[in-house]
Amino acid sequence: MLDKKAQYARVGIPLYLVVSLDAKYEIEEVREFRLDAHAGEYRLNRLHREGFLALEHVVIGAIGFADLVR
Q1: What's the superkingdom here (predicted)?
Q2: Is residue 46 a contact partner of residue 58, using CB atoms and an 8 Å limit?
Q3: Which of 13, 20, 22, 50 could hold 8 in an S-S bridge, CB 3.0 to 4.6 Å?
C-alpha cells in the first residue's frame, strides 16, 4: 500500500482510496486520501463508514458500498 501510494503521488494522481474489509469480506470503511501537491504526499481527507462513498472532489456523487462489490 505504501509503495503504490508514493508512486501515485509522484505522478500527481489527486485521489487515493483504501477499502478495508471485515471478516465477512464486506466493506467496513473506505479511507479517502487527497494529494497535497506542495508536500508531494497524500493526506487523509475523510473516512467513509456510512455504507456509501460520497466524494466531493474529482468525482462528484455517492457510490453505495454494495455497488463496489457487485
Answers
A1: Bacteria
A2: no
A3: 13
Provide the whole-model pTM.
0.77
Domains of the chain, by residue range, sit at 2-69
3-state secondary structure labels for all residues of the chain: CHHHHHHHHHCCCCEEEEEEECCCCCEEEEEEEEEECCCCEEEEEEEECCCEEEECCCCCEEEEHHHHHC
Q: 32 near 19, Cβ under 8 Å?
A: no
Distance between CA 43 and CA 13 in Å, rounded?
A: 13
Would you say 16 and 24 are in contact if contact means Cβ atoms under 8 Å apart?
A: no
Give the mean model confidence (pLDDT) for residues 41-53: 91
